[in-house]
Specification:
Layout lengths: L2 H19 L19 E3 L5 E3 L7 E4 L5 E4 L2 H5 L13
Antiparallel strand pairs: 1-2, 3-4
Length: 91
């Protein structure tokens, strides 16, 4: 693969990932809001939630109670099914 092909591929993957991430309704449920939330889950305006470390979220993280878990891309989660009723990725 040429350098130009690789750049085009990476750019297209970023675009697809951004479009996919935009489906999220920011309810916080995937990040444990209703059970043991990730310590990086923050509440924004209008009852929407966001990750305080979004760009570096993947990998080992910790919940509010101190449990360590591995944060993965949402595509990995919905591959096996929607995480909850009303999930924006079900659109």
């Amino acid at each position: 693969m040429s350098d130009m092909d690789e750049i085009a591929y990476v750019d297209s993957q970023r675009k697809v990932s951004g479009e996919y991430e935009a489906l999220c309704n920011q309810c916080g449920k995937c990040c444990g809001l209703e059970t043991d939330p990730c310590a990086n889950l923050k509440q924004g305006v209008s009852d929407r939630y966001y990750c305080a470390v979004y760009e570096s979220r993947l990998g080992s993280q910790i919940t509010v109670s101190g449990r360590i878990f591995t944060c993965v891309e949402i595509r990995e989660v919905v591959r096996v099914g929607l995480p909850h009723d009303g999930c924006g990725y079900g659109r």
